[in-house]
């Protein structure tokens, strides 16, 4: 019985954590204006 209560408590806590993270939403970020380098620069 204790294992069942522990499993149910863990499930509720995990669900609450997922809801909290979802409610916070995605971070407001910007993309970099500089393009990413896709090739290695030539060595002198």
TrEMBL record:
Residue ranges of the region described as Disordered: 25-44
Domain of life assignment: Bacteria
NCBIfam families tied to this protein: small_SPW0924 (NF033490)
Protein known as: SPW_0924 family protein
Organism lineage: Bacteria, Bacillati, Actinomycetota, Actinomycetes, Kitasatosporales
């Amino acid at each position: 019985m204790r294992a069942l209560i522990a499993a149910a408590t863990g499930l509720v806590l995990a669900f609450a954590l997922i809801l909290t993270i979802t409610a916070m939403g995605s971070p407001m970020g910007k993309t970099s204006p500089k393009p990413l380098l896709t090739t290695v620069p030539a060595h002198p």
